[in-house]
Each structure stands twice: as C-alpha cells, then as structure tokens.
Amino acid sequence: MVPTTLAPAPEPTSGRRGTRLTRRTRRAAAAALGAVVFATLGACGSAEPPPDTHPSPPALAADLTRADVDAWLDRTIPPALESGRIAGATVSVVRDGEILTARGFGEADVAAGTVVDPETTLFRVGSVSKMVTATAVMQLVERGEVDLDTDVEQYTGLDLPHDHPVTLRHLLSHTPGYEERAAGLFVTPGASVDLRRALVEDPPAQVYEPGTTPAYSNYGNALAGYVVEAVSGVPFEDYVDRNILAPVGMTSSSFDQPLPDHLAAHVAQGYPTSDEAAIPFEMVGVPPAGALSATATDMARFMLAHLDHPAGAGGGAGAGADTGILSDETLQLMREPALDSDTLGALASGPRMGLGWFDESRNGRAVVGHGGDTLAFHSHMQLWPDDDTGFFVSFNSTGVDAAALLLREDLLDGFADRYLPSGGATPGTVDPATHGTVDPATRAEHARTLAGTYESTRGFHTTFLTVAGPLQPIRAEVVDGDKVRFSPGVALRPTVYQEAEPWLYREVDGHRVLTVRTDADGRVQLIGHDSAMSLEPVSAARAVALPGLAGGLVVLLVTVLAWPVAAVIRRVRTRRGAPHGDAPADGPVRVPRMLTGLAALAAILGMLTWAYVVVGVMGMEAVPTAVIRTAQALTALGVLGLPASVWRVAAEIRTRSGWVRPTAAAVVLLGFAAFTFGAVELLLLSPDISY
Asked: How far apart are the C-alpha atoms of 555 and 668, rounded to whole Å?
C-alpha cells in the first residue's frame, strides 16, 4: 500500500446540501485519511484499526481468467461497498497484451442514480497521475532533451532556494529532500491553475540532502512536470494529451481542470461516504502531481503501454517503438531502482523507488505500482512485468472508518495471492522460507534498539504545521523478545516484523520489508518502510514539546478560572463581615498577579485559535493570514507570562504571607515555562507562516 494522498488545501465551494454540511463532511473525510496523508492526523498511533469491511479472499491460487476474476470481484466488492458506505468502484485487469476485464460497481452519482461504467465513467486517480508525469519526463530523457542527473534549474530557469542541486532522478525517486507543503495543492473550484506560480510561491524548504532520504513529495513531482512544460514549450496538460494520452488511446482521460464538456458530464462524483453530500470537483493546484481523470479502460491501456504492448486486442496503443511512447529499454529503466547504497546506505537493501514506480514486489515476483488519494477518490495501479499482468482499482468515496483504504489494500493483496502466488525469492529481500542470518541474541538487542517513537520524513519541518508530527507518532515496541510491532503509520494496521538479515526486517505473516540505517554508534537514524517513505526518531525535545504545551495549558487554565472563584470568595467574605480586599502587604503582588492572569488568558485563547487554524488547514479550508497572525500574537502574549510569573514568585516570597501563595506562584511559573518551551519548539512563533 502506497500512501500518496494529496495534502490538505483551501476549502472548495459548498455542495448541494449547503456550506455547513460540506465543511463537516470534509473534515470527517480528512480525519479518515489521516493515517495515509502524512501519518500525522487522526487517532493516536496505538489505536486499533477499524474492522475489516469485507471477507478475506480465498487462500487457494486460481487461474487468471476473466470468468474467475469477475466472479471474485462480484462476491468481494459489492458487499464491501454497502457495508463500508462507499458509493462506487471501477476496476480493470490486463493480461498478455489484452484487457482481461473492466468492471464498474455502485454509483457514480448517488443523487441521480448513475451507475459506474468502466468504459465511460471518469474517476479522479490522484497520485497515480504521477506515472503519466514520469512517462512524459522519460520521453524527454529518451530524446536527449534532458538528463536525469543534471540540476533541473538548467531546464526550468526557476531560482529556487535549494542548498543542494536537485535532479530529475531525485524528483522521480522522491528524494529531492523537500518537506511537505499543504497550501496550493488544491485550489478553489473556478480558480485558475498556474503551475509555475504554484512552484515559485512559498516553495518548501529542502530539509534533507538529495538522494539520501526517501520523503514523498508532491512538490517534487510537480517540478518534474514543469521541466516537461519548460523544455517542450507547451503547457504540461497539452504535452501529455498529445504525446501520451492520444497515442495510447486514452480518449476518455484528461489532466484539464475543469474537464472539457464532453468528459465533465461523465466524471464520478466524490463523497466522504455514500450517504453524505458530494464534494465539489477537486482542483489540483499542481496538476502533474494528481490532476488526471480517467476511466478504468483507459487506465488499462496505460498499463498495457507500460507492459510494452502495441495497439491490438487491448484496445489501445502501446509503448513500443511502433508508437514512439517509450522504448522497451526506457520502460525497463523506469522499473529499476533509481538510487543505490552510495546515497541511500542501508536503505538500499529494501524496496527502492524506480523512476516513478514504487517497488511493491511480493510473493517472490517483481511488482511495481503507484497509489493515489484525493479527499474523496482512492486509487491504485500495479504491474507484474514478468507476468505481463496489471491491476487498477479506484473508489469515489472514503467510506466509514476509511473503508475504501482498507478495501483497496485487501483487493491488492487478494489479487496477488489468488492469481500470482509465491514464485521464488525477490531480489533485494530475504526469502521468507529461510530464517535469516541473525542470531537470536543480536535480534533481541536490535529489537530493543529499534523500539521507540518515530515520525515520517514526509512531513512539515520548518512551519507551524510541524505540530502534526507529534500529534500522531508512530511507535515501535518489542514483542516476543526479538520482534518489533509498529503502530499504524507504517501500514494501515499494526504490523509485526522480525529481523532476517542485519537491520533488514520482514513482516511476520506479511510481505512488507523494513530497512534500518544506523550511525557509527549503532543508533537508529532512519527506517525505510516503503520505496518513498521513511521514518526518523522523534527527538527528545519534540517528544516533550506537545505534552509540555498541554500540561502548561492546564495550569494556565486553572490560573484563569481562579479569578472568578477568588472574586466570589471575596464577595462572600465581605457579606459575612470579613475584611475586604487584599492586605496592605499584598500590594506589591497585585500587578504581577494581574499580568500572569492576563497572559494565561491570552495563551488559552491563542491555543484555541491555533486549533482552529490546524483543523481548517487539514480540513481543506482557506485560513486567512490575519487569523494565523492573531494566533501568534496571543501566543506571544502568553509567552510574556513567563517573566511576569518570575516577578510574581519573587513578590509572593517578599510578602512573607506563608508558603501556599509562593508555592502556587511557582506552579504557575512552571506552567508558563512548559507552555513557552512547547510554543517555541513547535514553531508557533515563527515569523514564516507559510505551510
């Protein structure tokens, strides 16, 4: 499973049920996608996954025929759509140069009752679009117009703030070193899309040296697409239409946004769940990264093209010399690992990115693929080059409890295990029939070293959204003495791994592989868990920043609530004839008490505003700059409570009024200290508010 969801973005206009419902359902869908987007949203990493929404496929292998595939799909998908509240699905399978089957299930438009037609219904395939972008880049490489290892600035003319040169090899293998960006990945329906502007306005920081760290990047793929546009001299969408879609025979597919009239009438509606309002057409602000709309049969033709089949029974052109799409040598180059141990180090012993393709090998067979998610659509495409087979599936709803994501994963697993079972050892991995070469004592020691808390390298590092990482850490714990259990984030469900070769782990009762890169002292630096995904340990400072911020806020909330409580007590005492007001000795304390109270109130209001900002950004709503600045200003006022609380402690001690008040003041001081540390560590006061 490849988590390639496009990032959150500004809110589209309201749907047919009104703005309030659209915002509610959008936020619900965004939460369901959290484990896939950045491994930073949603529930705590230790939470158990949602229950399966459909039965497991049969364990016995079956003949890959149209009749058997159709029967398997018929008994698997319809009940899963119903129980998971998924509106519709589309599937295509290719085999030996032909479209073996193409199927539609459920509804493309729930309100109209329009059924999914695999020939005519377009689905938004999300990041599967990146394979079309990679194909376009490789056409230019094949023609000698660009080079894989040349700084892309020579082709684009863009002066991007990079510390290290970035090449097309880096971009296509998701190792340019960029942090994630949320803003600009989607734009409001009806707004214009300008690829160049999207790339130069607030580009992401380069936080890793290129080639060293797998960190999936929508921005990087969009930059590769702009190379195509800059070198060819035509808009990216036009280049793809003329040089890939039309020659391959994908006549019902397009990167255009909005779609041409003759296709717009046939695009499926996207839904959070099948009984909620449709989401407006999602306008991708960086088209090469995820703007393709396509039918299942057109995606079958694309798979045939990458399996190097010419026009014929498959119903479309292929990628051989006869069509001029790509040569067989270039197709093979795209599937091979793009980088080696010279830059990746120990990660090179596990799955590696090709030039666009993820290595998804399993059952001893070579498999390449790419997944894609928008807010509503969830797709995946896999090829078995040696077996001349391809599988594509897409859903137009997330479903209840992220049912579409689980169903997609289980369909991919089920298809592979049913029709393409174990066929020998896969290069670069350990044969599951062996027990590996690591002795039990070393396995146990390494498992203890690996245990800890991690966050994805695909995340936010220099912006206020860095808070997203600590919100859902990925935890690794030792089980059975020498195995390691990872919470969701590495996969949709908790997974257990055992070391088979030094620092290479295989999933127990599964097919995933983990590789570990350590430093000279044996400490974990990086865990590679997918071709373009890796984890890094959460630093000690980041580990305590969020709990510190929360703990400090609790203390400050008590401080604020103490004001009205104290006022009530004073009034009651006055009515009973007790002395009114503070004693004369309390005079020096009045000002610092008032300042700490006001600062505590500002801190609380600031965090409430930040919560609104983060939920809005991740729920695809446009958050005004003024709101973010207000959150920062309130946070800054809260931080000023730290020196005020020091003043208060000193003043309380000087009054010599006993130990209770100085102790309470000291607790408030600790609360402000924890709040300040968390706010600074999580970049809530950074002058740069881009995201």
From this structure: 6
Look at residues 402, 419, 436 and tell me which one is the last residue of a structural domain. 419
Question: Can you give the length of the chain in residues?
Answer: 691
- CATH code, domain with 139: 3.40.710.10
> Tokens 């590769």 identify what position?
224
What residue type is assigned to position 244 of the chain?
A: I
508 within domain boundaries: no
Q: Are both 550 and 401 inside the same structural domain?
A: no
Please say if the pLDDT value at position 73 is more than 60. Answer: yes
Give tens-digit pLDDT for 177-197.
999 988 888 888 878 899 999
Q: How far apart are CA 444 and CA 223, in angstroms?
A: 44
Three-state secondary structure call for residue 676: helix
Mean pLDDT for the chain overall: 86
Q: What is the pTM of this model?
A: 0.86
Number of Cβ within 10 Å of residue 690's Cβ equals 18
The residue range of the domain holding 614 is 543-681
Q: Which of 690, 211, 648 is nearest to 462 (CA)?
A: 690
Helices (H) and strands (E) in the chain, counts: 22, 19
Q: 468 or 248: whose pLDDT is higher?
A: 248
Asked if the structure places residue 473 within a domain, the reply is no
641-668 pLDDT per residue, tens:
999 999 999 998 888 777 888 999 999 9
- Written as six digits, the tokens of 302 are 């694309």
